[in-house]
Design a protein that fits this description.
This protein is an alpha/beta fold. Helix content is about 50%, strand content about 20%. Helix 2 packs parallel to helix 3.
C-alpha cells in the first residue's frame, strides 16, 4: 500500500530528488508539494483526508516548518508528520517532539532512516486497512 505523501521543501533540487528517491525505494506516492509555511499549513489542514504522511523542512522560502507542525497537531492517529532538515539538533528534535512530530531525520545523514520509516509506516497502514476490511466483512455477514 502506497502512502500518500505531501512534501514541504523550498529547495527544488532536494524536493525533486527526494520525491523520486522515495517513490522508487519506498511505498510512497507524492500527492503534492509546496515551498512555504502558509501553503503547507493550508493544504494539510484543508485536505486532511488526502494524505498519510507529511515531510516538512524547518527552514522554508516563507515562514517556518514549525508553524506547519503546530497547524497539524490535531490529525488522525494514522497520519504521520516527520521533519527532514539540516537542522536536526538535539534541541530541535525536542521542540519537534513537543509539537507532536512522529520523527525527525537529518538530511545529511539519515535518508536511509527516512526510507525505512516510510516502509514501516506503509506496512502499518496496510495492516490497518486489512483489519478494517475484515471487520466490515464480519459485520455484513
Amino acid at each position: 500500500m502506497k502512502m500518500r505523501t505531501y512534501l514541504v521543501e523550498d529547495n527544488p533540487t532536494i524536493r525533486e530528488n527526494l520525491i523520486s528517491t522515495l517513490e522508487e525505494l519506498a511505498p510512497v506516492e507524492s500527492v503534492g508539494t509546496c515551498e512555504t509555511e502558509d501553503e503547507g499549513a493550508e493544504w494539510l489542514t484543508r485536505h486532511e483526508a488526502q494524505w498519510d504522511l507529511a515531510i516538512v523542512d524547518l527552514f522554508l522560502k516563507q515562514g517556518s516548518g514549525l508553524r506547519i507542525l503546530e497547524a497539524c497537531r490535531e490529525r488522525k492517529s494514522s497520519q504521520k508528520i516527520v521533519v527532514f532538515s539540516n537542522y536536526a539538533t538535539r534541541e530541535m528534535r525536542m521542540r519537534c517532539a513537543e509539537l507532536g512530530v512522529d520523527a525527525v531525520f537529518d538530511k545529511s545523514t539519515e535518508i536511509d532512516c527516512l526510507l525505512a520509516y516510510c516502509c514501516t509506516q506503509s506496512r502499518k497502514l496496510e495492516v490497518a486497512a486489512n483489519d478494517d476490511s475484515r471487520g466490515e466483512a464480519l459485520q455484513s455477514a
